[in-house]
Amino acid sequence: MMYVIAGILGVIFGSFLNVVIWRVPRGKSLVRPGSACPKCGANVLPRDNVPIVSWLLLRGACRACKAPISARYPLVEAGTAAAFVVVVLLFPHDPWAWPAWWYFAAIGIALAMIDLDVKRLPSVIILPSYVVGGVLISLAIALGPTSLADGARATIGMASLWALYALLATLKPGGMGWGDVRLAGVLGGYLGWLGVGSLVVGAFAAFLLGAVWSVGLMLLRGATRKSRVPFGPWMIVGSAVGVVWGESLWQAYLSLIV
C-alpha cells in the first residue's frame, strides 16, 4: 500500500515539477495564470490536466490546436513516481526520512531538467533547499532511528562538498559555475547524512559520469573542450548513485585496499 501511495504522490508532484521546470527559468509565477497551450494559448481543461493519463488520451497533442505536447511531461511525472517508490524501497523502516528524500528527488529532477534546458541552476530553488532539506533531515533525526551523529555528518558533508566545488570554481573560472557550487552543498548534506561512503562515491560518480558524457560528445557529435556541457544533471545522477550504492561500493573499495 505504501508503494502505491508513494507512486501517487510522485505523479502529483511530478505534474507540479513540470510547471516548475517551465516557469521558474522564465521568471513566471507558479500559480498564475493557469496552464495553457504555448502555441494557441488555449487554457488546459481540468480533464486534460490529469498526470500521464491526459497525455495518453490526447495522444500527445493539444485538444484545441493539435500542437504536439512533449513526451517529457509524462516522463517527468512517471520518473518522479518511480523515484518516490524507490525511496520507500531504500528506507522501508524509516518513514520519517521519506519526506526528506522525496524532496531530494523532486528538486533533483527539476534542477536536472532546467539545467539541460537553459544551462543554469536557479538559486530560487537551490537556496531554499538548504532550509527545507535541513528541517526535513532534522525532523527525521529527531523522530526516526538515525542519531545526532548522522546530523553532524550531514553538516560536514554539506560544507565539504560545497568547499570542493568552490575551490574548483575559483581555480578555473568558467569551468565550474557557482550554481553548481550552491547545489553541491545541498547534495553533500544529503549524502553525508547517509555516510562517508555515500558522500565519496556520490561526488566521484558525478565527475566520472560527466567526463564519460563529455568524451562521448566529442567523439560522436564533434564537441570540443570549450563546448558548454551542463554539469548539474551529472551531479544529481552521481548523487543518486551515492544514495543507492554508495555505502556498498565504498565498503568493497576499502576491502580491496586494506
Automatic annotation (TrEMBL):
The keyword Membrane belongs to this UniProt entry's keyword annotation: yes
GO CC annotations, alphabetized: plasma membrane
Predominant location category: membrane
The keyword Transmembrane helix belongs to this UniProt entry's keyword annotation: yes
Every Prepilin type IV endopeptidase peptidase domain range: 103-214
Domain Prepilin peptidase A24 N-terminal: 8-90
GO biological process, one term: methylation
UniProt-listed Enzyme Commission number(s): 2.1.1.-, 3.4.23.43
GO molecular function, one term: aspartic-type endopeptidase activity
Subcellular location: Cell membrane
Keywords for the protein's UniProt record, in alphabetical order: Cell membrane, Hydrolase, Membrane, Methyltransferase, Transferase, Transmembrane, Transmembrane helix
Origin: domain of life: Bacteria
Pfam families in the record: A24_N_bact (PF06750), Peptidase_A24 (PF01478)
Protein family membership: Belongs to the peptidase A24 family.
Name of protein: Leader peptidase (Prepilin peptidase)/N-methyltransferase
Phylogenetic placement of the source organism: Bacteria, Bacillati, Actinomycetota, Actinomycetes, Micrococcales
